[in-house]
Design a protein that fits this description.
Blueprint (H helix, E strand, L loop, with lengths): L12 H9 L8 H14 L7 H22 L2 H10 L4 H8 L2
Helix pairs in contact: 1-2, 2-3
Length: about 100
């Protein structure tokens, strides 16, 4: 469910905050944590008319997803991914599940 500001207007701020604070739980696999982060990241994307702007918003969400997922991973998987500087989610997941 998307958050609104009371007027029915879409408000991604709460999802941005949730994403920024996301951290892998002890009982959560890297894949599950990736899904959690991905769901939050995509909820930050506003729907706009301009196709170019919409694409930019999704690209921004992907950057936030990669940054938060990498930062929020715990243990050896987290250390490994941060040292390897992955460029996309496919790379980071391959590193995280080694």
């Amino acid at each position: 469910m998307r958050s609104t500001n009371g007027s029915g207007m879409y408000e991604p701020t709460s999802f941005i905050l949730q994403l920024q604070m996301a951290k892998q739980r002890k009982d959560e696999s890297p894949h599950e944590f990736a899904d959690t982060c991905r769901n939050l990241a995509y909820k930050t994307v506003p729907q706009v008319e301009d196709e170019g702007k919409q694409k930019w918003h999704y690209e921004q969400a992907e950057r936030m997803l990669l940054a938060r997922f990498t930062s929020g991973l715990v243990g050896q998987a987290g250390k490994f991914t941060r040292f390897n500087l992955p460029e996309n989610m496919d790379q980071v997941l391959k590193i995280a599940i080694r």
